[in-house]
């Protein structure tokens, strides 16, 4: 497969396991913009969209919100920076939950 190959939303769905609705949402919000349109007006995506969608899914699975994910994608912050801040926030939540449990 060469770098000029373009994928439809259906092809991205099959390759990523994401729903069409999710890919359209990411497309509409600019997270994964289409590279081109087919003659029928369908969105077409370059191969880089696969990696970008995988990264977005991984970051969402880690509990990050879309605003932070956009910062990572725009290279405003790095993944290690975000991971460190997220780990710190989780530690605070764990301590809070332990205190609540102790009260019970």
UniProtKB/TrEMBL annotation:
<feature type="domain" description="HTH merR-type">
    <location>
        <begin position="6"/>
        <end position="75"/>
    </location>
</feature>
<dbReference type="InterPro" id="IPR009061">
    <property type="entry name" value="DNA-bd_dom_put_sf"/>
</dbReference>
<dbReference type="Pfam" id="PF13411">
    <property type="entry name" value="MerR_1"/>
</dbReference>
<protein>
    <recommendedName>
        <fullName>HTH merR-type domain-containing protein</fullName>
    </recommendedName>
</protein>
<keyword id="KW-0238">DNA-binding</keyword>
<dbReference type="GO" id="GO:0003677">
    <property type="term" value="F:DNA binding"/>
</dbReference>
<dbReference type="GO" id="GO:0003700">
    <property type="term" value="F:DNA-binding transcription factor activity"/>
</dbReference>
<dbReference type="InterPro" id="IPR047057">
    <property type="entry name" value="MerR_fam"/>
</dbReference>
<dbReference type="InterPro" id="IPR000551">
    <property type="entry name" value="MerR-type_HTH_dom"/>
</dbReference>
